[in-house]
Each structure stands twice: as structure tokens, then as C-alpha cells.
């Protein structure tokens, strides 16, 4: 009881701490005094400490199964394994809000203690925004979803965690989704700080790049693990059903992907400023929308907590964020003008712009399909659901275009390229991709079913992206070997080490292309068969034969469950390869029965079997699926993690480069470096290279002259000011 009281007190005190923190942040912003700045940083640490105390208290109650508290009763039981008692922390509404606050205050504390360019002005504003968000969650927890609500009398037994959530993947999936959602608060706060300070250069992008990448990585991991959980646990044969909550996680990931690409253009070229502010604002808003859909219950989903009361709080909070952000963007729109314009249609900058358009097209198509039931209910009084064919018809062509652009993009030069050079660079990997794609399609058609033109295009596009990444690595290594004479392995390691952002990005591209192959294979060539079988019957699906050998029943370790299972002997082309045991579990506490999938997985296909039920005369009903290449999705997911981690790893910048470019990177020197790289990689021909280099060198010379003139003027003005101060001091001393 004492631990619960401590947790409840910590939550109530957090409200006062957050309010006092707001005072400290505003004072630091208003006065710019170092004392208030220190208090602002301390306030972020104090917030985290109180949330950590409350979190530790709730974890203790869950682990010890203290049935005096309603949250513990709702999500744990004495027979529940320890890992799932811990997972219950974020398995329910109130606990997940506390977990959200824990991560948010941790992020806020780390940011507040950091130092970077213009941090004295930016950090108090960032801390203020993070604290306001924390205050919102504090109010919600104290008023609508208190995890320390005590029962009048201790319950005899707990309800236990939802059986569908008792899966190792669910200890990973929700945590990563939360970490992704919450993490986008930081770049959003910096964007708002930049707008409020009229500082719309690339500073906030450089500071928040890793925050954005980490959040994007966590959300991506959450999406992949969620798909894997759905595949293994729900027993419908697939992994993505375009469920509203699934869509809600995908939406901010798409806009964050566009933002990561768009931010590169602003960092290097000073362009797409408005795009970046809009994209990060949209990403944060969609993160809030995803949380709202989970908690409001306005749309049915197997993932939703369905607490309409909390949905009202989120709706009001989202409205405030939207109105404030849009108003601020409008007021600061003149400061978001690009520092330079597009120089050519065929250029890397234009490719990034097209990338943004495609990602936003997919985002708004998914968003419209997700909220359409709400729109239809508001206009007709009936919720009309949007099914998978709509999403597939709109998004799959867009996905193929994005993959094609992902394949072509690395071969397009910065500033100015030519269609001839691009075609010359890509024709070999493209022809190879067409050949490999058609061969793969013919194999899949012979093994499974007739493909569509879109499926064939998807396979070719995925191979094209894979091959262009391979060609980019090979050409980069070859160019370095010619310059340095080093061995290919040494060149490869040093290339990645010195250009982690670029080559880590290529690994991510490779991962997404492999995932795309898995999606096309399992989505377009999937075959299914349902059959009622008696003992001794055999079902044939694809190259597999499943012989039904009979059923049995087993009891759970504490008598809380009964599992009915079937034994199926699996053969391939007449040769026995193993036994599968699909089953269904029934719960004594009245929870709905769950199906337990039986899987026979190989790199190129999965045999997926579900026992749907029983019939008379000891018969059973089976649902059999073959999902070609579905394992590629999970392989690509792991490679996605590796590529993002490579991009995240800090690069070492030489002292020469820092001295040459100064604190703020000189765009002209960057352009010259890009031109040299593009020429060595064959993206710019010799004539265009010579012309562009001469232009850049002339502009650099003029820029250096102007810089020297400004430096001499500043030195002269400084000497004059020092002289005036010295004269004033002498006069004052004489008169005294």
C-alpha cells in the first residue's frame, strides 16, 4: 500500500512541478539570465525524477501482483509470467500514459542538459514545449486514467493480460511505437523554437537529426514487430490488414521519411525550408492522431484501448497543437523562403522534391481511408469502412514509384544533371533488374499463381533498387582504389567510416527493397485453402501435403487453460519433412479462445496452418496458406536496423574541413565537393564538370573576397570602438 501511495503522490506532485517548470522556462526565455537557464535545466531533471518514482512504484505493484489497485487487477494475475507482468506497464491505458510520460521527461532532460549551436536561446523554448506536453499527460493521468486508483477491497484474482498480448513480439512492438511517437516531440519543439526566434536556417535540423533518426528507427521497428505479431498471433494468414491503428503508426513514419530526405536538401543547399517545417509539424500531429485513435475508441481496432473519455482530451490537445503550429507557420512564412532556387529539373534536389510529393500522396491516401468511417458517420449517421482493396489500389502504384525513385536517385547529380548521364548510369542495373524480375515472376507463377502487371513491376523495381545500391558501392570503392591504391576491403571500410550517413542510407534502401520483395511475393502470390478433414485425410497445397493424424487436449500448468491441438504430418513431394501442431486455447476466466498458428518457415516460403474448429465425427477444419518470400520482410527489417545505426554513428570531421568551412557549412564548398564526387562516379560528364567547376570556383572567389572585405570592416570598426572606449575611460579618470 505504501508504494502505491508514493506513486500516487509523485503523480500529484508532478502537476505542481510542471507548472513551476513552465515559470522557469518562460523566465529564461524572457530575461536570458543564466540563473533562470540553469533553473530551467534543473526543472527538466526534477520532472523526470518524479515520473521515474511513479513508474518504479507501478512496476513494483505489477511485479508483486498487488490486487488492491484496479490497474494491477485489470492487467495481471498471479500465474502470469514475470515478463508479461512487466509488459502490463504499457499494456493498458493508464500505464501506457505513465510510460509515455517517463520517456518524454527522459528525452526532455537529455535535451536540456545538451550543448549545441545557439543552445542558450533555443533550449528554454524547447524545454517549455516539452513541459507543456508533459503537463497535458499529467492532467490526463490525474483526472481520467490514474494507474494508482485503489479498490475498496482487494480483488481475489486478477484478470491477467490479454492472451493475444502474451507474445514476445508484444514486449517489443508497443514500446518501440511509443519511443517513436514520443521522440518526434523533440524535433517538433526545435522547429517551433526556430520559428519563434526567426531562426529558420539548418541549425535545428543539425541538432535534431539524430533525434529524428532514432524516433524513425523505433517507429519502424515497432511497425515491423507489430506485423510479425499479427502474422504469428492472429491466425488470419497475413501481417498487415490496413487496420486503423496499424495505419496510424505508418502515417508519421511516412512523413518522417520524407522529412529525413528533405532535411538533407536544406542542410546542404538551403532549400525546402518550408517543406521541412511542414513535414515535422505533420509528423508530430500524426503521432498524436495515432495515439488518439488507440485511446478514443472512435474506430474499432484489435489494438485500441477504447476509452472514449480520454479521446476528448486528446482531441482538444490536438486542436490546440494544430491551430498554434499553423498560425505560427503563417506568421513566419516569409522567413522560410529558400536561400537558392532549383537550377534544373534533372537534379538531386528535384528528386528529393518528387520524393516528398510521393510520400505525402501515400500519406493522405492512407489518412483519408483511415478517417473515412468518421466522415461517413458525421455526414450519413453510419460508419462506412474502407477495405484493403482501396488501400492497395492507391498505395501499391505509389510504392512502386517510390522504389523506382529510390533506385534512380543515387545516380542523379546535385545542382544540375542530364537525362543522358542518368540513363547511361542506370541502364546496366535496370536491364539486369528486368531480367531477374521476369525470371522471378516466371518461377513464382509456375509455383503459385498468375501475377498481375503491378506485381511484376514491383519485383523489377525492388531488384532495380538492390542493384543500384550494389553498383553505387562498387563504383565508390573503385573510385577510391584508383585514387589511393588501397585494397577493395580497406576502401569499403573507410568509405563507410567516412561517409556513414550516405552509405548507411544505402543500406536502408537495400533493406526496404528486400522488404518490398517480401511484400510482393507474399501478397500477390499467396495461396490459401480451407478443408474439413477426417483422421487420415490429406490436404495438398502447393508443393506440400498435410496428413491429419488426430487431435488431443492438454491442460495449462495451473489449470487456467485448455488447449485443443491437431497433429499434421507435413510432406513435400511425398517426402516427410516434419509435424505441425495447430491448436486453439480456451480460458477458464471467460476470455475469448485464441488460435495458435503452426508455421513451417523456409527462406523462400512459409507453410501457415490454423485449426479453425471441429466438426462431427472427430473432424477438424483447417485453414492452410503458403506465403512466398514472406521471410524477406523480417530479413529486411533487421537490415533496416543495421543501416539506420550506421547512419546514426557520428562521423569524424577533419580539422582542415572545420577550419575551411567554419561553424556554418559553406554551400559553395559543399557544391564543389558534390561536383567532384558526382564526376568521379560518372554522374556528370567531363564537359559539364568543367563548366560547373569554373562557375563554382568563380563564385567561391567572389564569396571569399566579400568575406575578406567584411572581416576587414569588422576589424576596423572594432578598433575604432576600442579606441572610443579607451578615450572615454581616460576622460572619466581625469575628471574624477
UniProtKB/TrEMBL annotation:
Q: What is its main location?
A: membrane
Where is the protein found, in the record's own terms? Cell inner membrane
Q: Which InterPro entries match?
A: CcmF_C (IPR032523), Cyt_c_assembly (IPR002541), Cyt_c_biogenesis (IPR003567), Cyt_c_biogenesis_CcmF (IPR003568)
Please give the biological process terms from Gene Ontology that the record holds. cytochrome complex assembly
In its keyword annotation, does this UniProt entry include Nucleotide-binding? no
Q: How does it sit in the membrane?
A: Multi-pass membrane protein
Function summary? Required for the biogenesis of c-type cytochromes. Possible subunit of a heme lyase.
Q: What is this protein called?
A: Heme lyase CcmF/NrfE family subunit
UniProt source species:
Alicyclobacillus mengziensis
